[in-house]
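Section 3.1: Structural characterization of target chains.
Under the original work plan, the team committed to producing a structural model for every single-chain target entering the pipeline before any wet-lab resources were allocated. The record below documents one such target. The sequence was received from the expression subgroup and is listed exactly as submitted; it comprises 117 residues.
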Amino acid sequence: MATIPLTYVHYLRDQGRLLRAADVFSKPGWQDRLRKYVTDALAVAYGDAISTDSETQAAIRDGSISPSHWDFRPEGLLVQFGQSEIAAHVMGAPGVVIPWALIKDDLAGGEDLCLCD
C-alpha cells in the first residue's frame, strides 16, 4: 500500500517563511541526538511494527530532523510519520513525543523556546 503523506507546516508570519530546523535547534550534533531519541522512542512504542529495511530507516533518519514531521506539544516535540511510511498501514501515522527536558539543551532558544513548565 502506498504511503499516505503527513506534513506539518509551521509558518513564521513575521518573517514570511517556513520554520527551519535551525530555528529550533542550534547545538552541534543535535541531529544525531534527536535521531537517536526518536529511534529509541519508536522502538519502545511500536517494537517490531517498525520496519527495519533501509528505506524505512532512511525515512526515520530524515523525518526525525525535518520540521515537516514535527508538532509542538506541551509535553514535548511530536515527531510523526505518514501512514505506511515506517510501519504497516494498519499502524496509522506512527509518532512519538520527545520530552522537552530531554532536548532543551539543544534548543536554539534554550528553555524559552520549549513549552516547559
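The chain has a mean pLDDT of 89.
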